[in-house]
Design a protein that fits this description.
With 105 residues, the chain is α+β, with helices and mostly antiparallel strands. Strands 1-2-4-3 form a 4-stranded mixed beta sheet. The protein starts with a strand and ends with a helix. 26% of the residues are buried.
């Protein structure tokens, strides 16, 4: 069963996330779309954790109570911001360097 954790990427952005698997295991980041939430990934997070992965499904910007920039400001919700959030979540959990250190150009 996944645990509910909070991942902070900046003073004003803290994301709720369903998490399963051991810290340090290979990461699987599951991102939901509009009109869905992290809960759509609950079964997959559990299964991936059981298979030896570290599965993380955050509620994205606008969904997590701690990550709701001004909703009337459209620029806070552009795809670039959402991509930045995903990258920052991976960095915040300490897996960014390891995920890309073995890649060769």
């Amino acid at each position: 069963m996944p645990a509910l954790e909070q991942i902070t990427i900046s003073p004003r952005l803290t994301f709720d996330a369903l998490v399963a698997g051991e810290p340090g295991a290979p990461l699987v980041l599951l991102l939901h779309g509009f009109a869905e939430s992290m809960h759509c990934w609950r079964a997959q997070v559990t299964a991936l954790g059981d298979m030896g992965y570290r599965a993380i499904a955050p509620s994205q910007r606008g969904y997590s109570p701690g990550a709701r920039p001004e909703p009337r400001e459209f620029s806070h919700y552009l795809i670039d911001r959402l991509m930045d959030d995903a990258i920052a979540i991976v960095a915040a959990i300490g897996l960014w360097r390891r995920a890309f250190s073995s890649r060769r150009p």
